[in-house]
Amino acid sequence: MAVPFDFELLCELTETSGVPGYEDRIREVVTRELEPEVDEVQTDAMGNVVGTIDGESDDSVVVAAHMDEIGFMVRHVTDDGFVQVDALGGWDPRVLKAQRVTIHTDDEDVTGLIGSLPPHTLDEEQRESTPDVEDIHIDTGLDGEEANDRISKGDLVTMEQSTERVGDTVTGKALDDRICLFAMLEAARNIENPDLTVHFAATVQEEVGIRGAEALGVDLDPDLAIALDVTVANDVPGFEPADHVTELGDGTAVKLKDSSVIANPKVHQRLQSVADEEDIDFQLEVLPAGGTDTAGFQRAGGAVPAGAISIPTRYLHTVTESAHVDDVSATIDLLTAFLETEDGEYDYTL
């Protein structure tokens, strides 16, 4: 299957580093891509980026996707040159063994390794133990003096991984939430002369508590909010169908709820109506655990009608996150169609 979108840009977005609070590199890419498509681009004191297309009415809608990826911050460099870290976002330490990482220093990036000891050298207790992030030691391949000279407390660490095609899917690190950033940028390219003012918002610090969206919701004070994020696709061996949440290849997902938000029923019903009218494949998302920027906008500046469109993704918060290319395209199509038909006349009050 040919990729029906700009795969090169998606690779750049997913492979660029940007942990919570330090989204500088990805912010530059997003700003570069937004500027030709919108009337104005602004950033705020937290680092949120907002590209605005001015509409004909006084009403506004914000579309939000977060820029940050889960990562780490250096908390100590040992005398032997090993690096210890503190987590930025939710990591399952089991997936960190035998991985390469990039340590982002003031001068240059340093490659490091999270090693995994040979199993035949471990006793039974060691084999069965589950490590914590605090137990991880990153091997820099440097002696203690050089490691301490080049790496400092507060330096940032991201996983090292390329984005690849695997069958009908794309896989790599930071699809959460760069693949939704990509969908948002594609919609910004597609939409012309909207009735409402549209704010395309690339938010920060979602992975540590939807902090950027909460602040931005107050500053923008939109009349309507649509968040974009990945969602769980547990359609793999070992899970019952009721626990899949979503399935790859069945279309974009319209969120009904997650653990942080119950989407406005009138918003998600209209999203479904638009999908039906445009013959866009979609599925409904009932996510038992996990939160998104949807909640930040719903609660930040008063009662704002909020909904969300999600991209089904397997293996979340790992370096092999995977999404189906058709679901990505369906997400772009639904977001574009929704914005093109939003005229401020829909009543989302309950």
UniProtKB/TrEMBL annotation:
CDD domains: M42_Frv (cd05656). Residues 110-132 are annotated as: Disordered. Pfam families: Peptidase_M42. Binds 2 divalent metal cations per subunit. Zn(2+) 1 binds at residues 66, 176, 229. InterPro entries: Peptidase_M42, Peptidase_M42_aminopept, Peptidase_M42_dom2. The keyword Protease applies. One of its GO terms (biological process) is proteolysis. Residues 121-132 have a biased composition (Basic and acidic residues). PANTHER family: AMINOPEPTIDASE, AMINOPEPTIDASE YPDE-RELATED. This is Endoglucanase.
